[in-house]
Each structure stands twice: as structure tokens, then as C-alpha cells.
Amino acid sequence: MEIEVVAFGIAKDIIKGKQVSISLSDNFTVGEARKKLSEQYPDFSKLTSLRFAVNADYVQDDYVLNPKDEVVLIPPVSGG
Amino acid sequence: MLSKEELIRYNRQIILPDFGIEGQEKLKNSSVLVIGAGGLGAPNLLYLTAAGVGRIGIIDFDEVNLSNLHRQVLFDSNEIGEQKANAASRRLTQLNTEVDIEVFNEPITSANALETIGKFDLVVDGSDNLPTRYLVNDACYFLKKTLIYGAIFRFEGQVSVFNYRGGPNYRDVFPTPPPPDMVPSCSEGGVLGVLPGIIGSMQCNEAIKVITGIGTPLSGKLLLFDALDMSTRTLNIKSSEDNPLSGSNPTVKELIDYETFCAGVDKPDLATKEISVVDLKELMSKKTIHILDVREDYEYDIANIGGQLIPLNQVVERQSEIPRDREVVVMCKAGGRSQSAIDILENEGFDNLINLKGGILAWQKEIDSTLEVY
């Protein structure tokens, strides 16, 4: 299945844009998607504190993704 | 009781449905501490003062500098070099003499946070670094104070209300800090001047709502805003069982050393060598050190320490110009880009590179204050 990924903050720099779609096997979890993203974009392995939301909710790594889900990548932001 | 002058000054919000004289009196009887009189601090301080909050605390150790003025609209060009909290206090008193302004010309630390925050009802975080954000979050949790969170990066911002009536806090959103070089500050990553105006105003709106009890505060939610496409997303966040502060098995029971916490004990590249500006200066007095400066040309023109200039995006193609047979100290503005340059060049086989901690900003602060800051 294809999953839309939307990036914020420094995650935009890593995927070189705001949005990217990644193909995953069915029943992939967020944790597996995180691994897949790190393979495709090695800098994600360094951004250990990156959080994931699916549609409008913060989720943990065991969340199972559905084909129409939109994954939002939220890195910490420090500026003030 | 509000005076006749107050009834006139605040008339346009007193006549609002659900706000009324009661709302205005709640503001007058409240106290708010604003952490950092910077980009986010400016609109918060201005609007809290204008709205008639009774007592406002400003904590900031820094001075006004020229590169602040495109976004920190609380200050003017004549105030460069002055303590920010003092300059802010003067401006705010001119705006509204009814408001009692309390100034703290110091950094907020684990040693003074509980005492300082303890004096106020509500806290607005306008700080510019992760150690302070974790510190303020934890202190507010221990003191049961609501924290109005805002943070900015380039064209984007985040807003939330933490610890509101037992609601989620910052550690539910970001349980652990990232490696230090992965999250650029405004001085390293840049920021659109108007952005903190937008995000800070949203924070102030939440502060006024929490104090007066109108509307629904942004508790249990994280708002993400992108100024480039004017999109906002509001994500639902929950209190996590695993939260080391407020979860079911807390491990953080008092304030800790947040600099160490955010410096990351399990940093991926343990091999990376670093040098402080003081040690570099000492080394330079004994022998010639090759310094590679990976900032942009215009930055180098503002201030440099005589290093070889190769901007970060040219280091790969111009690597033959960089010596491999002796130690090379790599520097940038604050230490982030130089670390990226080292990572890139190590992939090209370099093993002689040392990162200058804190970059030219640290050099300016600790070695040569005549350099221009930008």
C-alpha cells in the first residue's frame, strides 16, 4: 500500500519537501514505517526523537497503518 | 474593583460576550511569567500587558542585538546592548502603567526555576533551546502550573497548553531530546520575522483564555502551523503511561541537569571529536592550526577568525583543497553545520576533522567580543 507522509520542521529537509509517498506492505506498523523511512532517508536514524501522528492523532510505534492513512512527522522545534 | 479609567481602557474586551467585567478582573488578579523576551516573548508581553494582566514577570539574561530586531518588535534600535528584560520592562510600563512588571536579569536554571515560577499563576514559554524547554516543563509539572508552549522554526510553529488541569505535558509530546545538532535554533536555521508574531500571539490568546475561563484551551492538542501554505493541523496528544515525569512509574522526581540531559549520552557518532573555543585559542598560540569555515560568504564577511572558507554545500566538490595530513578544526556559526560538514567529509574518507563547539558565536562570547554578532 502507498502511504502519504507529511513532514514538518527539520524532517522537511530530510525528505527534501513537504510530502512524500512511501510504499509499505499491508499491516505495516508505524515502527516499521519508521524503519523504512530510515532506510530511504538515513538522516532519520539520527533524529531519534521524531514523533508520528496518523491523521489527527499522535500514535505509538505499534499502531497498524491503513491504506488511506496520512502520516505526519513531527520533530522537536526549539526556536523562540 | 476596576477604576473608571480601567473600564474605559479595557472596554472593547469587557463588552465581549462571556468576557465581561468578571473576565477583566480575573486578568487583573492574575500573574504570568514569560520565559525569554525574544521573538515569542515580544507579542506575549505586549498583549498580556495591553490586556491588563495584573503582574507580569520577564526572565531573560540576554542583551538586545541588531539581528534580534527583525522579529523582536518589543525593542528599538536605540536599545542595542541593553538587558532585554530591562528594555522590555520600560516599554511595557509605557504601554500600561497599571501593570506591575517584575524583571529577572538571569537565565532560568534548575537552581532558580521553582522559586521563580512559584511566584506566578501561569507560565508562557518563549525560550529558544531544548534544555530550557524541558526544565520549564518539569518545573511547571512539579508546581502544578499551566504552561503555554510555543516554538518556532523557519516558517513553522507549534503551540500547546501543557499541564492544564492534569492534562498532557511536553514530555508526552517529546519524551526524549534529539541529538543536539539535529534541531537548529533561530540563529542557525533562520526564522521569518513575522512568524514569532503569529505563534506568540496564539500563545497569548491561550494564556488569556486560561486566565479568564473563556473558550477551550489547546490542552491535549498540539497545533502545527506552516506560514508558507497557511496550513494548520491540530493533533490529539494524550498523557502517556511511560512519561518519565507524570507517567505511572516516574523516574524524574526533581529538577535535573538539563544541559547534560539534552547533550545526549547515546549520541550516534561517538567518534566525533570536538574542541572548545578556549582550547582552540590556546592551541593557536602554540602552533598553526588549519581552520575550515563552512559558513556562507556573507557570514564570513561579517565576522571570521581567518579560517579557510568553503561553504557547506561545496565541501564535497572542493575537498581536494582541505588538508588530510594534519588536524583540521571545522567551524560554522553555532556548531551545527560544521558537524554536518564533518559527517559528509568523513564519508569521503577524512579522519582528521575536529568540530569547533559553539562556532563563531562562542568565539565572539568567550574570546573576542569585538567581532560582530549576527
Describe the structure.
The complex is a heterodimer of chains A (80) and B (374). Chain A has 80 residues and is of the alpha+beta class. Chain A is built from 2 helices and 5 strands. Chain A has helices at residues 10-15, 30-40, and strands spanning 2-7, 19-23, 51-54, 57-59, 70-74. In chain A, a hairpin with a 2-residue loop joins strand 3 (51-54) and strand 4. The longest helix of chain A has 11 residues, at 30-40. The termini of chain A are far apart. Chain B is of the alpha/beta class. Mean pLDDT of chain B is 94; it is low at 266-270. The termini of chain B are far apart. In chain B, helix 4 (41-51) runs parallel beside helix 5 and helix 4 packs across helix 10 (195-212). In chain B, helix 4 links the parallel strand 1 and strand 2. Chain A binds chain B through residues 8-10, 18, 45-51, 53, 56-58, 72, 74-80, and chain B through 36, 38-41, 125-130, 133, 150-153, 156-158, 173-179, 182-186, 189, 191, 196, 222, 224, 226, 229, 233-238, 268.
Summary tags:
heterodimer, A: 80 residues, alpha+beta, Ubiquitin-like (UB roll), five-stranded mixed sheet, 2 helices, 21% helix, 29% strand, B: 374 residues, alpha/beta, Rossmann fold, Oxidized Rhodanese, domain 1, 2 domains, eight-stranded mixed sheet, five-stranded parallel sheet, 15 helices, 13 strands, 17% strand, globular
Write the layout of secondary structure elements.
The complex is a heterodimer of chains A (80) and B (374).
Chain A: E1 2-7, H1 10-15, E2 19-23, H2 30-40, E3 51-54, E4 57-59, E5 70-74
Parallel strand pairs in A: 1-5
Antiparallel strand pairs in A: 1-2, 3-4, 3-5
Chain B: H1 4-9, H2 11-14, H3 20-28, E1 31-35, H4 41-51, E2 55-59, H5 84-95, E3 100-104, H6 113-118, E4 122-125, H7 130-143, E5 146-153, E6 156-162, H8 170-173, H9 186-189, H10 195-212, E7 221-226, E8 231-236, H11 258-263, E9 273-275, H12 277-286, E10 290-293, H13 297-302, E11 308-309, E12 328-331, H14 336-347, E13 353-356, H15 359-366
Parallel strand pairs in B: 1-2, 1-4, 2-3, 4-5, 9-13, 10-11, 10-12, 12-13
Antiparallel strand pairs in B: 5-6, 6-7, 7-8
Helix pairs in contact in B: 4-5, 4-10
